[in-house]
Design a protein that fits this description.
heterodimer; A: 163 residues; alpha+beta; Alpha-Beta Plaits; 2 domains; 5-stranded antiparallel beta sheet; 4-stranded antiparallel beta sheet; 28% helix; 40% strand; B: 572 residues; Rossmann fold; 3 domains; 6-stranded parallel beta sheet
Chain lengths: 163, 572
Amino acid sequence: MRRIISVLLENEPGALSRVVGLFSQRNYNIETLTVAPTEDETLSRLTVTTTGPDRVIEQITKQLNKLVEVVKLVDLTEGPHIERELMLIKLKATGSQRAEIKRTVDIFRGQIVDVTSSVYTVQLAGASDKLDGFVQAIGTSGVLEVVRSGVSGIARGEKVLSL
Amino acid sequence: MELLSGADMLIRSLQDQGIEYIYGYPGGAALHIYDALFRQDEVKHILVRHEQAAVHMADGYARATGLPGTVLVTSGPGATNTITGIATAFMDSIPMVVLCGQVASTLIGEDAFQETDMMGVSRPVVKHNLSVRHPSEIPEIIRKAYYIASTGRPGPVVVDIPKDMTAPNERFEYAYPKKVKLRSYNPAIRGHAGQIKKAVDMMLAARRPIIYAGGGVILGKASGQLTELVRKLGYPITNTLMGIGCYPASDKQHLGWLGMHGTYEANMAMHHSDLILAVGARFDDRVTNATEKFCPGARIIHIDIDPASISKTIDADVPIVGPVDAVLKEMLALVKESKEKPDAEALASWWRQIDEWRAFHGMRYETSPDVIKPQEVVEMLHRLTNGDAFVTSDVGQHQMFAAQYYKFDKPNRWINSGGLGTMGFGLPAAMGIKLTHPDEEVLCITGEGSIQMNIQELSTCNQYKLPVKIINLNNQSLGMVRQWQDMNYESRHSHSYMESLPDFIKLAEAYGHVGIRIDKKEDLEPKLKEALAMKDRLVFVDIQVDRFEHVYPMQVARGCMKDMWLSKTERV
């Protein structure tokens, strides 16, 4: 099952490499990884999406917790949560395609953020499967380049991951 | 406040940490530190002949005393040579701090002379590593390093020190921190009371209980609590290879150790039990055999300081995260005050069954009128040293024979690389112990393969007068490799035969020691006595033992706990 694990990490050199190293060392799977400092500059927030049987997921959270620089973590998929991913996608857009792409972008609530005579650059945010859905709707033949941020997530309601 | 250079702060921090010995090897990036070391005499430095041995020395010291060991090496090859030693300590959770020189911070990343990314290289085999970014941080980093290494589940910590951090001309205010503050590191200090209560109820209701204790009992200094609890309950106990000595082997409740080469009765009792109390053990693959067939009728209580060790390979019914000594103490109190008592009849019939198993195999082996068996050498050593020696081993058949036939009644006396299985561990580990236990008998039981992996340390032994006794069970082959080739590869002995062995007697003598060769059975006892009588000399005893012996019992691969070979021809 796919999981979203959110980690508060000491914002120190080498801390990220420990997290990434742990996954390869113990043969765990990373699908996406995002990391950036938080409002407290001594802390980074890291979101990793992974898949595996429950036993492996339990080991992943335990092993992550063992890292000295991991302050706190939560498996967001255990409760209601919001996940978002940002995609920038460059599409071939000529002739009648231009209107069609524009309509599809509107349906997916994306924005065209750059335009040339033959290319649209589209920005789209949402859950990962919505981004997948957009790429599918456009058809891969028209896609010139895709950049995805990886998943960021946060729990719904009053639950907070902080010190 | 005093003003000190980074190098002086480092040595002063070691003094304030109470470090008596460090083991190491100098080199360019560590020279400021070595100069600071020279200008004091509180911290004593032992110069090894290879950095790997420095780590094993620190490791042997740590295992024998329970205190963290300390290593000092230079950058690049000095640092990378420590990796096998660090990985050895990591796998067995041994507290240790490894101080590594590094090229100047201004040169890092430029492929400077003797530059290696030690933070990156060591990362997978350390509990933690720290890099010095400003000289003034040194006291705090050293304090943190020892704190992390020796609390919670212990392990090695590497400190990477760029050369400019120790420069003699820059001085900073020195104060050794009394406390460590780490918001992200809080090892458990006691177990969950509800879980402990639940566990005790299950233990008292069990009909075929067994206690399965691991190295965590020794690391957690909980042998006393464990022994008291086991005696109070009257239940059988087995332990892992790493747990040897956590409960007296000579006691009737002790079934010997379990697993791949464990006793028949320990493996049988585990398989047929209805309740396993696992204490500071980690259900390692050398214990469980095939995990899906592991102890089908047993419910499992698992106590460990490391939550990640619980339900990693075998699911626990009652997990208890906490230090084993504190948890066992609480359990004992509950057992004492509980109105429930173990079912005496069920327990008596369980013991009858166990005694039958015990009588069935009894660690027998075939003897021969003229060939010396490795097992009998170990049995004789046990007798001649009153079972009270520190015994280190390397890795292979001799390690298993030593663990099987030397019956340890005390913790911290059986010193071996159980997790990583590092050949070359035995001699330097023995040196580390002898240095701080000069009046104790320290034996290194080894083989002609393993001993050659760190044999250069005979020179260090000469320099510091470390009279360890090296017992070389010489079968002229890599015995365990050969055994597997016999059993699984139709005796195709691919590269397991040791050709061109050195004359170990001459070699020992060349290093200034005594060498004794034993190749006749009748010489075994008198010559071993002769060796042990030379209290102030290192004696290298080279014993020609049976070249074809196998270690038994041996679990059948991919079977369950109770599937074993008991000899070359008997399989149960």
